[in-house]
Amino acid sequence: MRARWTVGAALAVGALIFAAPLAASAAGPVTFGSSPIVDTVGVLGSRTGDVEKAIDTLYENERVQLFVAYVDVFENPSDAVAWTEDTANANGMGANDYLLAVAVDGRTYYLSAAADSPLSDQQLSEIDQNYIEPALRDEDWAGAAIGAATGLERAVGGDSLDGSTGGSGGSGFFWFFVIGVLVVGVVLFFVLRRRGSSASRGRAAPSGIGALSTAELKQRAGSALVRTDDAVKTSEEELGFAIASYGTEATAGFQKALTEARELLSRGFTLQQKLDDSEPDTEEQQRAWYAQIIENCEKANAALDAQAQAFDALRALEKNAPQAAQATRQAAEAARARLDGVRATLARLSNQYTDAALATIADNPAQAEDRLAFADTALAEADTALAAGKTSDAAVDIRAAEEAVDQAALLLDAVDRLDHDLTEARASFSEAIADLRSDIAAAKALPASADSSGQLASVVASTESVLADVSAKLSADRVNPVEVVQRLEQANTQIDALLGSVRDAEAARQRAQAALTQTLLAARSQLGAAEDFITARRGAVGAEARTRLAEAGRLIVQAESLGAADPAQALAQAQRANQLAGEAIRLAQNDVGGFGGMGGMGGMGAGSGRGGNVAGAVLGGILINSMLGGGGSRGGGGFGGGFGGSSGGSGGRRSPGSFGGSGTRSRRGSGGRF
């Protein structure tokens, strides 16, 4: 009798324990360290090792990574899809990275995959339904993660997902309850301790980005800038296509959204430049500016996303796919017809200018040819899809071809543009040299009393040395006009600073105005070269180069607006812009060099039938999905991307690009309530 009473009491206490609501502590997106598991609520406990083993097995067998996060409630954002999106982006997750996020008290979850994941939406849904949700409904937290790893391994390996179940084989809620009753005293202790801890977290823990470390904020801000910059650039390209097809009136709303997004992104880059400059910033300033960058990027993406659905409806390539394919084919032929002429231009430039002067366009003809080859293959696949009545698939191929042709034209235009800029720079040499000689003569004509420190004589000697060096460079067979202009500009700035005190204000103003014209010419040339280089290779270029580029552009606009009222200040802005544009080129070239011809993805081209032009398409940010692998055992796979992000569409086929922000076309997946 006593034994029955004890068991009955234990059951009653156990029921109270498990029925008692726990204080929920909301959690913002998390950051993963060396472990693929974040468990802020401690639900995995002793089974953490089992989950790690399943994740390791998945990676060893399929080279696919699974990350799992358990929190009380999703917050900032509260939507499960957006929360996993932010977490994945903040942690730099790629095509073969998957994220399972579970809000234990919120009773919601989401399995997130990149848009360019090799798995189709149907496969992700089957993993969710057969391997994850059943375990979550039984509160088998470890079983859900193990099930996700098992389902991913089967899907990536080409095995059927039908009829399978996740979990850990008999470790559901019933057994959990029975075990809990048997050790009710221990369970009571831990549950009550967790309640206290959870309540404490609810009272004291900061939420959202305020809870992140400064290093985590920096990482998230950098990621946001790159993603948003890609969104804006792709949206610009897509809007250009739409304006050409439908006119400015029909696309006015999209233009307004794009303008707003550009302004917000520009503010973000300006803040990033402040963080990158040599001026020391307090911890408080850094955190505030990183948070503002993230907020600006979110607003920019939201502005684009708000118009994405309307834009997609307008573009709806499947409605006029044959005509669009023909127009793209004609544009490709027009670009191809320019190749020989551009190669001849580049050969001529190579005889006149140094390799350094031509570094940003040296491989442009080859890159353009790659893009056109990619477009040809995409259009051929579009024709096949149209013949089979698959108009939506054809639209994906056509859109990819459009972007590839547009980039090919940009690459060819960049050669002609640099030819013009270098010619203008070379034409400015005579005036700049004459100006320096006039300065030297003026300095030498000053009385000795004006140079008691000897500083002016030193600068005169330095300026004469620069002129001699420039003269030697100009007599060589090949010249770097940008380098020559920069040397002349630096010498002019130095000697002008010393002569300024003995010149009247109007003369100084006139000289600053003359120097501004030359410096702006050099800065615009550098900026144009940097923009062309980065846009055509944006798949490899990171936030630092983009920040320098954006700041250089802002300073040039500022210098142009100040030119008439304050030429001296405008000159300083133009000089800084020229310097930053040069830094942008250098940083972008480093990024592309480190890209390593797709950074280990080079093998993708061989199996796809597209050859090496796939690498060029990815380098250019033209992101394709199932066109790469052609389906097979891995479902619709490949790269996704385009105007603003990459998550649009359904099934395995992903759009290579359309109007919108990262929230419209980013990661995809499956989930819900449990």
From TrEMBL:
Record flagged with keyword Phosphoprotein: no
Ranges annotated as spanning the membrane: 173-192
Protein name per its UniProtKB record: TPM domain-containing protein
Gly residues: compositionally biased ranges: 639-664
Domain TPM: 38-154
Signal peptide: 1-26
Disordered, as annotated region: 639-674
Entry keywords, A to Z: Membrane, Signal, Transmembrane, Transmembrane helix
InterPro entries (UniProt xref): TPM_dom
Pfam families per UniProt: TPM_phosphatase (PF04536)
Gene3D superfamilies xref list: 3.10.310.50
Residue stretches of biased makeup (Basic residues): 665-674
The organism of origin for this protein: Microterricola viridarii
